[in-house]
Amino acid sequence: TIFAVMTFTGLINHQESVEKMKELVETLKKDKIAMIEPIEWEFWRFNPPWTVPWLRTNEIAVKLDKSAFDTEENENKNEDAQQSKM
């Protein structure tokens, strides 16, 4: 599984996490990064509840289309295989 991840600080609720997810998705679309459709995403929090908001670490993760990344790896394997046959 491959994710694109955006890290940010602060105290955030579910509705705000949805807005952050939309922001990340728009950036990925602008950069033409292939995502799983429908969008699959997760909201990750890393700190205990008593951590002050400006020191909290949060992440939004959007699942990417793995096949878009496998193509280059497969091409490299094919090239390696062809070179070893010579």
What can you tell me about this protein's structure?
The chain has 86 residues and is of the alpha+beta class. It contains two helices and three strands, in the order βαββα. It has a three-stranded antiparallel sheet with strand order 1-3-2, covered by helices on one side. The radius of gyration is 18 Å and the shape is elongated. The two termini are 35 Å apart. The model has no long low-confidence stretch (mean pLDDT 87).
If strands are numbered along the chain, what order do they take across the biggest sheet? Answer: 1-3-2
Spatial extent as radius of gyration: 18 Å
Tell me the span between the first and last alpha carbons.
35 Å
| H and E order | EHEEH
Itemize the secondary structure elements and their pairings.
Elements lengths: L2 E6 L5 H17 L10 E5 L12 E6 L3 H19 L1
Antiparallel strand pairs: 1-3, 2-3
Quick structural overview:
This protein is of the alpha+beta class and 86 residues long.
